[in-house]
Amino acid sequence: SCRGCPLFLPLRCRGVPACLCRNARPRSPRARVVWTGARGFIGQAVVRRLLRDGLDGRAVKIVALLRETAKLPAELQGQVEIHVMDLALASIESIAAGCGKGAVVIHLAANAAVTGGEQGYRNNIRSTERLLDALRQQQCERIVYASSIGAVDRMPGDRCDSPLDEHAPPNPLTPYGAGKLEGARRVGQSW
Fold first, then answer.
1. Helix, coil or strand: residue 109
2. This prediction's pTM
């Protein structure tokens, strides 16, 4: 059992407690990693690292879900499987097919424009909801969701005496921040 493992988390994937250690469950020799957010600085750095080092001692197959192939850097295009789709508009079936079974999903895609207004908020939430719906069908191994400091932000009158962390009361000041907060809630509730 992994319950005594320092990497054990009280999170659940398909109703089973999750552990990030290598002994948690039998794994295929090659990890399928689904990546959203191909244009982003963080996403590109994560993918380059995964291609170089693998995941949990396994080689990786990177699957990019992106809106436009041209947005993926040229040096990565030949190293990843590409599925062109807008997560906010694509069918659940096509998202599920792109993800495949048993994948590790790194969901970094978002409309990060703080001036995106209600449209940006809706697109960010809808994209996350549809990805989660697709993943329920595909028995994903793990999902990593990146939020933003904009989901927490400072409360009015906060003198900035202490750092913000996951225990700080959320106070998003923009539709983008509110969308990231809601996305984190939905990811947390879905597993």
1. coil
2. 0.79
